[in-house]
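Form 12-C: Joint structure prediction
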Amino acid sequence: MGKRTIIPFGPQHPVLPEPIHLDLVLEDETVVEAIPSIGYIHRGLEKLCEIKDFNQMVYVVERICGICSFGHGWGAVASMEGAMGVQVPERAEYLRTILHELGRVHSHLLWLGLLADGFGFESLFNHCWRIRETVLDLFEKNTGGRVVFSICKVGGMRKDISNENLKEMQEVMNGLKAEIKEVTDVFINDASVKNRMTGVGVLTKEEAEELCAVGPMARASGVPQDIRMTDNHGVYGKLGFEPVLEEAGDCMARTVVRIREVFQSIDLISKAIDQIPDGPVDMKVPNKIEGEYITRMEQPRGEAFYYVKGGGTKFLKRMRVRTPTNMNIPAMVKTLAGADLADVPMLVLTIDPCISCTER
Amino acid sequence: MSAYVTKSPWVVHYDGSSCNGCDIEVLACLTPMYDVERFGIINCGNPKHADVFLVTGSVNEQNKGIVKQIYEQMPEPKVVVAIGICACSGGIFKDCYNVLGGVDQVIPVDAYVPGCAARPEAIIDAVVKGLGVLQAKREAMLNKVEKVEEVEEVVEDAVEEPAEEVAEEVKSEGGEE
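Section 2 - Result
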């Protein structure tokens, strides 16, 4: 047994866009244990939700995370609509599903870029982000924002997206497939990428289930866990959704799951645009919230959980969010134990960490 | 200290307590659509290599030491750009119990970029304006200006200049003196 060394990793680190701190206990080059500590970007967002009324609150909730901001807005809004007992118009549900899937495409492309940067493939990073800009342009055209849209509100959508714009979106996204494939083929086929990722950080199916891994992390280990098929949110039931599964459970499998999900999301958007009915996108809602309600959402990073408790006024008594990265940290720590020091950035990145979600 | 520092400023980025929105816009600036490398700007992970410090998000008790540490590790002259309304004043999270306020509570800030999330165009504009400040600070160091007020004066004079330079470049007409 060699001498033990502790190497601090983060909070400011080149591969991390966000601060998380890990104490890596090393024996020679091998990580024996990783001790995570978080808390650098805790803001106290749940408390802020209690002093804003439910219409203002949506703006706060969207800023849990700038990457999956639409999904967070939708989750909170769906919870409040559930507590009020209202059913939003069908067109609004379709629009939400479309924007949420578009958000998944942008999030996964962003992540693929960060991963490429993590293993030192700078040009691949730039190509992923170049493609992602097309998706952001669609967002900007249809909602007005690149990152945070605030288009979701209690009772529906703040504004409609015209059928012409939706058709254009469908064409642009279907046209993007070839470009995305060109880039993602590099991830799957390139020898240097394979060497870095195949067989690294294996998480077995049993471990994934035991450690409550969620999202692509669980699906890469063969756990068929996707809220889009289990819960009845959005219009996924009408789109014939099937979760993407891989068996290997290593870094490569986690990448492949996300790559396949990008194409799946584009297909879902296309199907939803074909099916979308005409009609209103907004409805009147009661001016107070009573009772409790829980919604589960499949964010790009996995299952998120929104709990609201109303007190018969415009204000919530309690708002609680449980986010996917929070659930994936135990699995990440598990994969870190026994890994090489040089593989640590890859293992941290492949859970797709979103620390501002985790700490809020 | 090289005279070419403003021709190739390297940036270091730290996420104070932002929601990621501004962080991904900072990274978007580095990618082909906005491509700040045309100004010689490179993102580096090491504060000791950096000339410009981009902070997103507000400061809190936990991270103010880290923000200070990164700032102190950067070599002189250096410029701090606060990106996003959270870094400027606390923004939507101003009332949160764990938010102290803007980054200027902890370190001196030279340029502010409002917006939620700050747009890449605005970030690039602020960094280019910051280069004017960097140049002024460099000259002040060379001339050994010792009094703090004098440095500030020089900096203030310089802030407006780069904007004009860039505007000229964009028009690509030149001719104005």
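Section 3 - Comments
Chain A has a mean pLDDT of 86. Chain A touches chain B at residues 11-15, 17-19, 39-45, 47-48, 51, 59-60, 63-67, 69, 110, 113, 125-126, 129-130, 133, 136, 146-148, 354-356 (CB under 8 Å).
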